Amino acid sequence: MTRRNGSVENASALGDAFSARAGVFSDKALLDVGYVPGSERIVARNEEIRRLATALNPAVEGEAPSNAFLYGKTGTGKSLCARYATRRIVEASAETGVDVGRVVVDCSQDDTETRAVRATVRGLNDPAVTGIAVPETGLGRSRYYDLLWEVLDARFDVAFVVLDEVDCLDGTDFLMQLSRAAEAKKLDRCSVGVVGVSNKVRYRDRLEERVKSSLQEREIVFTPYDREALSEILRSRLAAFDDGALEADVVVECASLAAEEHGDARKAINLLRHSGELAASEGADRIAVDHVRRAKSVAERDRMRELIDGGTIQQKATLLAITSLALVEKTRTFKTSEVYAAYEDICAESGLETLSKRRVHDLLREWEFLDVLEITRTGGGRARGSYLQHHLLEDPSVIRSAFDGSERFAGVGFTAGSTTTTWSNI
Ligand SMILES: Nc1ncnc2c1ncn2[C@@H]1O[C@H](COP(=O)(O)OP(=O)(O)O)[C@@H](O)[C@H]1O
Ligand SMILES: [Mg+2]
What we know:
Blueprint: H1 3-14, H2 46-56, E1 68-72, H3 78-96, E2 100-106, H4 113-124, H5 127-130, H6 141-155, E3 158-164, H7 173-180, E4 191-198, H8 203-206, H9 209-215, E5 218-222, H10 227-235, H11 250-260, H12 265-281, H13 289-309, H14 313-328, E6 333-335, H15 336-350, H16 357-369, E7 373-378, E8 387-392, H17 396-403
Parallel strand pairs: 1-4, 1-5, 2-3, 3-4
Antiparallel strand pairs: 6-8, 7-8
């Protein structure tokens, strides 16, 4: 084949890839993580939204709302419902003539007290209305607080501060300041409603009594979605695809796979999108169940690979230890002593220095932080005889495949019962 012919052929083969509606998608934005569906597309959360509305509703009449705390695992619709409910109150208050404001602070980004106060005041301020300038840098924390109280009184009767991922915030001083603002006479006119959102169900235990009592919080726990709810969430976004682009059972397959994990709507939506991308990349004009299954393996392996690449060699060894146990045993749950023994074997096999139990425990905690495993104490609370259980959340064969190609650990830790999967054709 001549070079000229080759390039002509390439150009025509690539033609589709750059057209706006290549493949199976018609409006892909509906599958974006940040997309906020309207109420008609919020599925299976009526009870949670109703309870949230009860807490926040006094604002519509200009009265102080209750604070609310939303807990639950990732992808259970907490951020969505917090945004939706507060936005609805702001809209409803336009009709009653009450000035209600609202800001959403992502505490995983603004994770110190100063940053969080600054994000709050900047989000609520409108210099054209208040005449107050809030600089992005250069002020100390207490100055930002002063500006916050000023802005709140200048603009609003009631303001909602949604603290999303509030467990990422270092310390609880900001919560304290917000909840005590009225009592401490920082505010004359405005009342503040705090909506805390946390993926860590145990975050509440971290709050000191005085914070808890001053928040008078209403707790709303978001339970994982089941297969039916996930199917419905996906179905409400099918406008993302061309007509007839989905084979029967594709939605149910995505929903079932996500339900098997922890009922995470984000995972279900991403899986549907990745399946569509995989089908489109293969030139298919329909998504089949097989695309879904392969998309899931690829997504999981890629995520694991990223996590593993980000770890130190010792961190990798600890993960390999529990993974190799899970591949050999019939369970995914192990005691500290079992994980440590497997870790020692791996160090011996790969010529790695063996760290102390304490250090290995710290490294395992980091995997827990990344949701790769879960560590719980069993055997009678803090009483003598209690011990730690390490439960691997990820599929060990996926972790194992993510270790493929890792020179340091080639062949280490997977001596029994492991199979190698080939991914090159995906
Ligand atoms: N009940 C629901 N109806 C429709 N979409 C939902 C629902 N719950 C979650 N989603 C979607 O799933 C994704 C994750 O939800 P999110 O609110 O961010 O979860 P969380 O904050 O609990 O981690 C978002 O794209 C969101 O729009
Ligand atoms: Mg969230």
